[in-house]
Design a protein that fits this description.
Helices cover 28% and strands 21% of the residues. By secondary structure, it is α+β, with helices and mostly antiparallel strands. It has a seven-stranded mixed beta sheet.
Length: 908
Amino acid sequence: MSLEVNGILFPQEPRAGQCLRTFLRELGHFGVKKGCDAGDCGACTVLLDGEPVHSCLIPAFRADGRTVTTIEGLGSDHGAHPMQQAFLDAQGFQCGFCTAGMILTCASLNQAQRTDLGTALKGNICRCTGYRAIEDAILGKTNVEERVEPGAAFGRSLPAPAGPEIVRGQARYTFDTQVDGLLHIKLLRSPHAHARIVAIDKSDALRVPGVHAVLTHEDAPSILISTARHEKDWMDPEDTRILDDVVRFIGQKVAAVVAESEAAAEEACRRIKVDYEILPALIDPEQAMAPGAPIIHPDRTTDNRVADARRNLVAETHGEYGDVAAALATSAVTYEATFHSHRVQHAALETHGGLAWLDDDGVLNVRTSTQVPFLTRRALSDIFELPMDKVRVFCERVGGGFGGKQEMFVEDILALAALRTGRPVKLELTREEQFIATSTRHPMRVNIKAGADADGKLTALQLDVLSNTGAYGNHAGPVMFHALSESIAVYNCPNKRVDGFAVYTNTVPSGAFRGYGLPQTLIAVEAAIDELARQLGISPYDMRRRNIVKPGDPMLSPPPSEFHDVLYGSYGLDQCLDLVERAMQADGSPPDLSPEWLIGDGVALTMIDTVPPAGHFADATIALNNDGGFDLTVGTAEFGNGTSTVHRQIAATTLATTVDRIRLRQSDTVHGGHDTGAYGSAGTFVAGKATHEAAMQLATELKAAAAGAWLCDAASCLLDDEAVVSGVRRMSFAELAKLARERGQPFAAHGNSGGTPRSVGFNVQGFRVAVNKGTGELRILRSVQAADAGIVANPMQCRGQVEGGVAQALGAALYEEMVIDADGRVTNPKFRDYHLPSFADVPRTEVFFAETSDTIGPLGAKSMSESPYNPVAAALGNAIADATGIRFTAPPFKPDRLFPALYEKFRS
């Protein structure tokens, strides 16, 4: 066989049955990515004789005698391909995992295909961007500012530092490396929702050639942990073991096989014999908390931070301000309804996985796809009783996260296998494993009661929430508390009550997901505001204006919090409401639709605390280099959240230089310091503050050094254009670096942020929709979101975060749904049956920013990554209700869900 890849002939023969994707990666073409292995996502796209194909579907031998082009071969020695450059100019990527495949498809389009991008791009999925920036790239639009003057980077639309590597396929994700002597891990998973393992027979599995170990609960530490990673361990229950003798959901890991190849490991998994004692399974949370129900974790107590194991309650909360019942009885108008949210998968295109090995110094190294490398290191140190300096956890670039990688699903098994075998090991979850064995958004039943007086002032708000945490309690309590907090704290109301229950069931665990519980409750709260406004004849915008909190108002939700550090660092909610209302009322072409279509508008708002409570810590170090540039070291991970860009902008602005002079190192515990992690809206607000503090301290040192050389007052010195100046005197950073060498004392500074006090961010979403009363089809005619992000660090990038959040939330609101049958089995564990939004599914969203400056955040900025997701389903539900006069209370709003009620109301 002769295979030509990027103009080079390769004589290697593929293995029997090997697909082209794995063959190309074994040849070192890491730009060819694995996203689904089913031809659904397009991350593995290559050009075969100039035509785009999904290489995971092409047998490698089919490429014999043909020409293959991967992203690495698209450009030339003289520069990038025009489409690669177009993606750079438009910044048509965020995490970048899909970008290689997307660029190859786009580069192959002819003029006719460019007129119908929805069809042309249907085979390539992007989970991050919302597709607008990708369309801009195809249309040749430039969104970046190529260069700005020194000290003026903050607030400008500067490109991501990894952009050139991303578009050329050179950015390295978790598995984009070659390791000698690598062993492969495959996991045997439970076929039962609830069972006790009576016996495991490994003997046949160990006889498979190439198998090195079969690890079960007998081989793993018995310590109880949580897969959730928080700075404070008390936030999550200790209810999980690395490998357990009781399985509590279909898909839970039972054994790990370590072998020379994936094929050998898979064969060994098939040969493991497990004797199970089947236990009663609970799929429905209402039944799980009913008296007399079987107990899922009978040996857990409050010492394990489980609220009441006898009732299958991992957490609960109750509280009241005023007297809600009395207020409802005397209100001019009231509203009561029950809403249900569903399971949604994060669907990051890079699945969970990692590599682990012991180096010559005996240090356990774990290279993994994570949002929390430092917290994962701490957990591995505790579990395996290793000193912290004997554990290194790091990530390079991460292919999407959305909260799902704020967990430890693979690193513990990787560590166990590496320590047991002494060999480097690899574990990469399949797409099906990602669905059945990681985590989802918490499904919730939300009952709301609300009342208002005749003037439209709220008199009562009551939420009763039942959250299905699944088989384990990772994030159960914090998600429930968050869901009950800002959703009603954003409204002034004298009488508020909450009751919350997080319940174990024998289903796939829930966990952290973008928005962290708020989308589930907002759909109910914002519906209630609209319904009260409708009864009173008040516009939805005015109803909100009469009731939203304003600076000086307490942000209250019962029960009282022990944390009192949330402040109005900036306030732009009023501006956001105005911006969305004006945009929705702006003149536009009326839709060309038949009378069968019903038109309606909807709005919803959200407030979010910019950082989790109880401390979220970040360290940063910056040092002056010999060439007058700077080395900046931070702990935050980059997975499309854009913090890598913002860190450099903060440092460059503070030090009066340009971003190209800031060299960034990040997300590696070997660099020292600590970082709680890139989650909880903390990337810019917390880690960015650490960078700002370090840069300011270094600026002070540089001015002091120049003043000492000039024998003048440091107060007379300032930084300007990559130098310290005082009057007519000027000392460049390169000269200062020379001075440091002569003194033998480098210029370096450290910054730290503890995540307190916290600020609040605001978002308002508006939709105009058309609903076909005869079919249930729904079309989005207009999408508008306004956001208060303080001073926007990077307008282009922040706009992309908003668009991506809206797109992801629309997927969940319209069609994404993990379906679990009566036995607890996920029935649609692949993209083809799950329906992620593609280019044709996502409308363009108009994005506006309030003009505010946060007094707490770095250089006036605050968070804006997860909050755009939160109001989307609520606004869409309000728009559908406005169009149809029917309140639908359970997304996703699929046509078959809408049709029965529409038929009942509108049938002739």
